[in-house]
Amino acid sequence: MPVQAPQWTEFLLCPICTQTFEETVRRPISLGCGHTVCKMCLNKLHRKACPFDQTAISTDIEQLPVNTALLQLVGGQVPKAQPVALITSPEDSQHYEEARQCVEELALYLKPLSVGLSSTAQSILSRPMQRKLVTLVHCQLVEEEGRVRAMRAARSLGERTVTELILQHQNPQQLSSNLWAAVRARGCQFLGPAMQEEALKLVLLALEDGSALSRKVLVLFVVQRLEPRFPQASKTSIGHVVQLLYRASCFKVTKRDEDSSLMQLKEEFRTYEALRREHDSQIVQIAMEGGLRIAPDQWSSLLYGDQSHKSHMQSIIDKLQTPASFAQSVQELTIALQRTGDPANLNRLRPHLELLANIDPSPGKKQQIFSPPITPCVHPHRAQLYTSLVQVYVSSRI
């Protein structure tokens, strides 16, 4: 039976014995599945499978190299080069060494975390960036599965870098007004956290039993119930809230000859949590269509008036991401840099970001890793890939 995986912040501990990795007995060994275990615990396993996801360990444990990126973070001596029996081609060996060194360089951004969780605030990386970097550092580059995971992790890390650069180049004072202008342009409206919540609950009250009402009757019902607490409630404003739910495909609409259509809440949206999530997703979708990038904590403040819904908003943002989102974000960053004059010359990173964006993020897709690329934008050298990431990181610190 699989063992529960550790928290990502405990990346310097062996998840089996919970001891800190070190360079003699408890050397960190990463598996193809992305988990890292100390050498002592690996040798004690009763069956050759990862204890966390039960993925079979097909490679001889003695042939798996030490994860030097983690080793350096616990003060271990990192050899300049490790002979790797699993890589025989001189060209592949060269690419592996370059990639290993780049991952080691990237791992140094996690150094503040290695001296205690209380120091995370000192890191120049945001929490999401740290988490994605930890995923990359745990990849086993000598195994095909590990290399494919590393490619996806590198892409994810690059995409997050672009998002954070866009956020840095947006005017926070204009962000809110631009968002609500985009919502209004689609015939919708957000009435503020408290009033919007009440309006949605009243829509649910009217329709949760499967009733079918015309838009006019539904709007009047909500307005009449809202007015005692929110005198500013109007048929127009509530009509725009209903339109937002309509855009989110929350209603089953029945057309009638010579009469108003009837609106019925779809069964899957007859709880407040489900309806609210679809409502929030629609607003995030509108923002993305308008080229706006808003952080989860900002979303929580805008839609709820607090900071306790960051995880909820992050999950919505993640779900709306598509393989094309990264390339679109690169275009948006280019436009943002043009507006600001690009004093740090970040536009020079565009070829590297496009290289990362062209990696297929789909699980199970094989990437061409060490062999020379047929089409450079689609099958990058691993070394070239990681060099791109390093350059993005250095520039994002400016």
Automatic annotation (TrEMBL):
Annotated Gene3D superfamilies: 1.20.120.1790, Zinc/RING finger domain, C3HC4 (zinc finger)
Presence of keyword Zinc-finger: yes
EC code: 2.3.2.27
Gene Ontology annotations for the cellular component aspect, listed alphabetically: cytoplasmic stress granule
SUPFAM superfamilies in the cross-refs: RING/U-box
Gene Ontology biological process: nuclear-transcribed mRNA catabolic process, deadenylation-dependent decay; protein polyubiquitination; ubiquitin-dependent protein catabolic process
Record bears the keyword Acetylation: no
UniProt keyword list: Metal-binding, Transferase, Zinc, Zinc-finger
One Pfam family linked to the record: ROQ_II
Molecular function via GO: double-stranded RNA binding; mRNA binding; RNA stem-loop binding; ubiquitin protein ligase activity; zinc ion binding
Catalytic activity: S-ubiquitinyl-[E2 ubiquitin-conjugating enzyme]-L-cysteine + [acceptor protein]-L-lysine = [E2 ubiquitin-conjugating enzyme]-L-cysteine + N(6)-ubiquitinyl-[acceptor protein]-L-lysine
SMART domains from the UniProt entry: RING
Cited InterPro entries: ROQ_II, Roquin_1_2-like_ROQ, Roquin_domain, Znf_RING, Znf_RING/FYVE/PHD, Znf_RING_CS
Domain called RING-type: residue spans: 14-54
PANTHER family to which the protein is assigned, alphabetical: RING FINGER AND CCCH-TYPE ZINC FINGER DOMAIN-CONTAINING PROTEIN, ROQUIN-1
Name this polypeptide is given: RING-type E3 ubiquitin transferase
